[in-house]
Design a protein that fits this description.
Strand content: under 5%
Largest sheet: none
Order of helices and strands: HHHHHHHHHHHHHHHH
Number of strands: 0
Number of helices: 16
Amino acid sequence: MREFIFRLFGRGRRPPDSDGDARTEGGVGADGQARTDGGTVTKEQTVGRSRVQEALDSDLVGSLPFWLPPALLIGLFVYGAIGWNVLISLTDWSGLGQPDYDSLSFAMYEEMLSDPTFWTATQNTFVLLIVFTAVTLLLGLLLAILVDQKIRFENTFRTIYLLPMSLSFVVTAIFWSWMYNPEIGLINVGLRSLGLDFLAYAWLSDPRFSLGAVIFALMWQFSGYCMVVYLAGLRAIPTEQYEAARTDGASTLRMYRRVIIPQLRASTTSAAVVLMVFALKAFDFLFVLFGPTPGPSTDILSVMMFREAFRATNWAYGSAIATVLFVMALGVIGPYLYLQYSRGDL
């Protein structure tokens, strides 16, 4: 790398004497040119060359070819796009015209605050975010504790639980649209076969159950992921701590509540962040189930953003909703990154 940089700056080879000492071999300097001062370099030249040499030898310069190109691409196509989206949200762009960047304002955000559809979608987004994350973490923890009991076919159960995680939201949504079908869906058919016809509802079209049905389907998909995360945390706890709790007379419930679960804080934090990010990205799941107009009971911000931007062509309003979603994602990831930084893990 250093040789390449020297050639880039026009030097044929690395200077043979890089420590800046005065030369005595008859007037040939570090750059290979004959010197007119009798072969002696000045002190300022020596110090300057030493600093340049030190900078070129640093790890930062040596690692530039590996991290600088992807960093520039991410900066352009990810953060540049985010910045452009924020800029569009400050315009009044709609229809098939071009945005006018001469008059920027917060008019779209003011309109958003007075839009009841926005508040309904925000409420549904928070319910999905919190309930889905909490229930999935709890189910994943229970599954991990069961699998950690050295049961037979542990690997088989672990694979079965983790398999839904590999499916895309589109496949999961189609699968659960069949399961929730009010006439031929497996859930209602099973309830009717047990004589529980009064529980056979139209799960997706009834506003009382539609959001709960979505949360249950997402929980089915991601509980296996939480189980694996918690299982790794349980296996990392030394066996001596289990034995010490048993020796002190702690019951199983007390041992898990006072000794084991508090040590799973890192697993809980990392799994919760992943689940909340997936909850914010549940657009394709709801879009496949309900289309662009899911109704007030299941409308969330990501679906509303798509509807405003790509169906109503209110580009500026859709960009403002996307900006709110980005801020919510930062609210989820920011504290986690700060926590990792404060622990020295970042």
